[in-house]
Design a protein that fits this description.
- The two termini are 39 Å apart.
- The chain is 35% helix and 3% strand.
- The protein has helices at residues 4-26, 35-38, 48-57, 71-74, 153-163, 173-181, 184-194, 203-221, 232-237, 245-256, 289-294, 306-312, 317-322, 356-365, 393-403, and strands spanning 96-97, 100-101, 127-129, 134-136, 280-281, 330-331.
- The strands form 3 sheets. The chain has a two-stranded antiparallel ribbon. A two-stranded antiparallel sheet has the order 3-4.
- A hairpin with a 2-residue loop joins strand 1 and strand 2 (100-101).
- It is globular.
Length: 421
């Protein structure tokens, strides 16, 4: 039987090996990206690439129409670099409906909640772990940011929304680059970051520089501004704080219920616990009927196959063969910052759950409470650790209290709770 630590070690080796192969094939060293930083290991002041990436990340001009949406519009720092629950659209801003973010074009919505940009750069390249027979790594909820384009998943993820018609809606990568070329500050930052001028004389220039935009954003997302490791949990691990009785009870129950099997809470080398194993799972969630009704979408036509659907459309015969067993599987998210902004936040890939209490209650009672509604893909859902945990309501509250200790920015002597039980 493979132990948890051995499993983590294997994942790490597979991720490093796959990433190394991508670097070799794509010659990432030619674009001078510091891979250790992209994996989130940098500390202190932002470097030149991260400064460039930060400016792009917060620039609402990086959408069409311009001025409507930045990366930060859907990955808000105050929310833990995720989105919000419900926010009305404005004349010059876009909102959220039941956890789903509106794109730059008014009324344009996808069907998934924005995943966290914080701690995302630790994700290894997307690969199949033949030992444990599961897919690992990648970004986006279905892992389609594999690392094959820029060399790292975070770089691939960063450039996706710019061209997505229900997100930042640019017609082409050249249109994105031209916005930088027409801004003297960007031209200056680009030169400092990459040691070369920003140009798009040829298609090769456009392709190379568009990848560099993604890598610059990934560099920022790898910085300590985004990955702070400043939660109460971290302070407890350093011996600088103690859990309350309720928080400690929640931690004990978190382990007892085997939540830590996927939301791994052991450090890996010098990296503190990331609360994810980068795997994919179908936990039997129902559809977000509130969102579908608001958008006048037909539930039966709106099923989201997640990883399984992506594999089925991949063109890879081996992946296509695995796809039926992975319909409805989505990436296991980090639990870090899960409670930030809890009062106006949605949870799970489709935003169907409205509070952390509801999240824990779902895991606890999925199989015993018919009011949850039918799962999207019942045939492939996880029946091992989810559905009937036999927790009391008080025990659910304790787990919620523990999860609230995972929010960055904790300070001793300050009430850091992000919500009310």
């Amino acid at each position: 039987m493979i132990t948890l630590k051995l499993k983590q070690f294997i994942f790490a080796l597979l991720g490093v090996a796959f990433l190394a192969s991508c670097q070799k094939d794509l010659d990432v060293t030619q674009v001078d990206v510091d891979q250790s930083r992209v994996r989130g290991l940098n500390a202190g002041k932002l470097n030149a690439k991260a400064e460039l990436g930060r400016k792009i990340y917060f620039d609402t001009r990086m959408s069409e129409p311009a001025g409507m949406q930045s990366c930060a519009s859907c990955h808000l720092p105050q929310m833990g670099f995720v989105g919000m629950g419900d926010v009305p659209s404005g004349i010059n801003s876009r909102g959220f409906k039941a956890g789903i973010g509106e794109g730059a074009v008014a009324g344009a919505f996808g069907g998934r909640k924005p995943p966290s940009a914080a701690y995302a750069t630790f994700a290894p390249a997307f690969t199949y772990d033949a030992i444990n027979e599961e897919f690992i790594g990648g970004l986006f909820w279905d892992g389609r940011a594999t690392g094959a384009v820029t060399g790292v998943p975070a770089g691939d993820q960063a450039i996706g929304p710019f061209l997505n018609p229900v997100e930042q809606n640019h017609p082409s990568s050249a249109a994105v680059i031209s916005k930088l070329m027409n801004d003297n500050k960007y031209v200056e930052l680009w030169s400092k970051a990459w040691g070369s001028s920003l140009k798009m004389d040829t298609q090769a220039d456009i392709d190379a520089n568009y990848k560099k935009i993604g890598l610059a954003i990934a560099e920022y997302e790898a910085s300590v501004e985004v990955n702070q490791f400043t939660s109460k949990f971290d302070a407890v691990q350093r011996g600088q704080a103690q859990f309350t009785v309720l928080e400690q009870q929640g931690l004990d129950l978190f382990i007892q219920a085997e939540c830590n099997n996927c939301h791994v809470m052991e450090p890996v080398g010098a990296t503190p616990a990331l609360f994810t194993d980068f795997s994919y799972d179908n936990i039997g969630l129902p559809q977000n009927i509130e969102f579908l009704n608001t958008m006048k979408r037909i539930p039966s036509a709106s099923l989201d196959g997640g990883l399984g659907a992506r594999l089925a459309a991949s063109g890879n015969p081996e992946w296509i063969a695995l796809a039926p067993d992975l319909m409805g599987a989505f990436k296991t998210p980090t639990l870090r910052n899960v409670a930030k902004g809890e009062a106006n936040k949605r949870f799970m890939h489709n935003g169907v759950l409205k509070s952390l209490k509801e999240v824990v209650h779902f895991y606890n009672t999925r199989d015993t409470d018919p009011t949850w509604g039918a799962p999207e893909y019942p045939a492939t859902m996880n029946k091992r650790r989810v559905g009937n945990l036999r927790l009391t309501s008080t025990q659910e509250d304790a787990i919620v209290a523990f999860m609230r200790t995972l929010s960055d920015g904790w300070q001793p002597g300050v009430n850091n709770n992000q919500g009310v039980l």
